[in-house]
Amino acid sequence: MMVLSAQRPDASLIEFLAYRARSAPVGRLVAEEAGALTVLGAALRWDPPAQLPIVSAMICLGCYAAWGLIDRAGAVAAARGWTRSSKALRALTFAFTALGLVAGAGILLSVWAFALGTWIS
Length: 121
Prior knowledge:
This protein is mainly alpha-helical. It is 82% helix and 0% strand.
């Protein structure tokens, strides 16, 4: 049981998510990634009515899990002195962050579109 957290009480959401991904076991991050890819594939295969928010949410979750795994690999590469690998992994974490932010915006916009569509109809 963890009594004291390393987080400040006034930590931002970004700091909280980074702390959570960095402290998560690798197995949990791999399971999150596998689950996100499974649900993403199912949503693309069966084409449900709410496909856009499902796909956006799974891309967002998958990017978060991939970011955690790549960040951990980048820390190992930096500790071993592999500067090129460390820089490449850092660029990959930025790419997954950007994709996750776009997917998060897609979630918000798709939910808003559903709300407007059901309200206007």
